[in-house]
Amino acid sequence: MARRGMSREQAMADYVALVNRLKAEESLEA
Fold first, then answer.
1. DSSP 25
2. Segments in the chain forming alpha helices (H)
3. How far, in Å, CA of 22 to CA of 4, rounded?
4. What is the mean pLDDT of the chain?
5. Residue 7: strand, helix, or coil
6. What Rg do the C-alpha atoms of the chain give, in angstroms?
7. Would you place residue 1 in the very low, low, confident or very high pLDDT band (cuts 50, 70, 90)?
8. How confident is the model over 7-18, as pLDDT tens digits?
């Protein structure tokens, strides 16, 4: 966490969280 720059794992986790949030919003609208 203290390192400068995101590790690939952290970037992946952030991307997955973003996609999941978008899917959840789409399902709520539908």
1. H
2. 8-29
3. 28
4. 88
5. coil
6. 13
7. low
8. 999 999 999 999
> Residue 23: is it exposed, middle or buried by C-beta count within 10 angstroms (0-12/13-18/19+)?
exposed
- Structure tokens belonging to residue 1: 């966490």
- The residues, ordered by sequence, that sit 6+ positions from 13 with a Cβ below 8 Å of its Cβ are none
Compute how many other C-beta atoms are within 10 angstroms of the C-beta atom of residue 28. 7
Asked whether 1 and 9 are in contact (CB, 8 A), the reply is: no
CA–CA distance, 4 with 29 (Å, rounded to integer): 38
Burial class of residue 15, CB neighbours in 10 A (0-12, 13-18, 19+)? exposed
